[in-house]
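Need the bound structure for xanthosine-5'-monophosphate, inputs here:
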Amino acid sequence: MDHEFVLILDFGGQYNQLIARRVRECNVYCEVKPYNKITLDEIRSLSPKGIIFTGGPQSVYGDGAPTVDKGIFELGVPVLGICYGSQLMAHVLGGRVQTCESSEYGKTETEFDTDCELFRIDGLGEKNTVWMSHTDYISDIPRGFKITAHTAHCPVAAMENAEKKLYAVQFHPEVNHTVHGTDMIYNFVRNICQCSGDWTMGNYAQTAIKQLREKIGSGKVLLALSGGVDSSVAAALLSKAVGSQLTCIFVDHGFMRKNEGDEVEAAFRDWDINFIRVNAKAQFMDKLRGVSEPETKRKIIGEEFIRVFERQAKKIGAVDYLAQGTIYPDVIESGSGDAAVIKSHHNVGGLPDYVDFKEIIEPLRMLFKDEVRKLGTELGLSDTLVWRQPFPGPGLAIRIIGEITDEGLEVLQDADLIFREEIAKAGFDRSINQYFAVLTNMRSVGVMGDFRTYDYTLALRAVTTTDFMTAEFARIPYEVLEVCASRIVNEVKNINRVVYDITTKPPATIEWE
Ligand code: XMP
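Answer from helper R.:
Posting the output first, comments after.
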């Protein structure tokens, strides 16, 4: 490994990704590995500078409860156990874990021993708020340990064996509600594990470019470019590595936001790559004529996309590599669970069956979204591309309720542009994670001048979220909404009413279809 490295052993906790992101924020590279997919010898050979145990849903005494080889504590590598991880450390090293009479959940006042290296933080008083979520607790600490924090209901909110560099916290330092939580993680990885902080996107770019060059040699690479952050950054990185050996195909299905197709083309026109834009709107519209059912629309667009891409790829002939913009959260989550399909997602990835290639390369596979953005900036991509909000593969097609028409598309593009302009003007374009307009199929009566109108209702949707699995509606000031509504009904034809969607996800979803 080219970087200092912290291993995160995952015991099935819901915050595993968050822990990894916090460690990366401290400029330390880390990877999340399921506890049962790595042996002690493999851990040793990776030479981690530190190990973190995540939380998990089980009890250490439960049937088949996740555990670790006791030898992990003898590697001479600092270990931090979080929640279940802390109980596991206590249990394996001879302490005792018991079930609480009532679970401790939520923000909890905690008393700290601020002499403990983990808690030596400016501004961390002896009493602080932490985020708790547990049913079991450590009742007896193992020999050699001392208690370094407690709450009214939890006698061991933290413990340490400083000599062996073993630390455990019952609470979740990775959750924002834990005051100074990130500082605690910083103390662990930077001070206790003594990582120097060599993980920066500047360093990553250099290493990745070198590695991609070695791997690709004189081979040909094909990438489906959507104009989204991930595929754009992947294109930029590959372009720096292998230049014109890279061909990017941008399938413009005609459902991009206003001017967006041209913007994507303009952004990549001057790069040293082969850039192919396929204007396929007519084809997509043809297939979608008379179709109004959301899942059918999604399926048609996904399939047509693959067909258009495949036809282009055939013209290029065999390639050595198919590149994809997969990022780390997809890697961590892949293969986990049989969740019900709410919407069939269409992304520009996932095409391997249809294209003649030898291998897939995923140059962003180990990066989180915020790192991808930083890397994009490092590689010289514009802020417009790097800070682009997420945009669904099927584009505006799923933001027009019911059948898609040329007129509907034009109306939606115009209204959406006004909404985006006003959000940017009000300074919310980075703090609101996703915001867009939806053209409903509902008509209502209005009055314009002296005339009655009977026109369409446009909905505005804006959400704040960290993971897009749950979301809150954005608290946009009324004044800003008022300007949006007024501009939209005045400037966009066929709209006489604007509504703001104030549902959370769940029960609603972010997109309307
Ligand atoms: P929902 O509507 O399911 O959306 O709450 C969650 C997030 O996913 C995006 N989304 C998609 N992204 N292909 C994508 O790449 C799709 O087909 C797709 N459908 C929804 C949506 O914009 C939101 O960010």
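Comments: The longest strand covers residues 96-112. The two ends are 44 Å apart (CA to CA).
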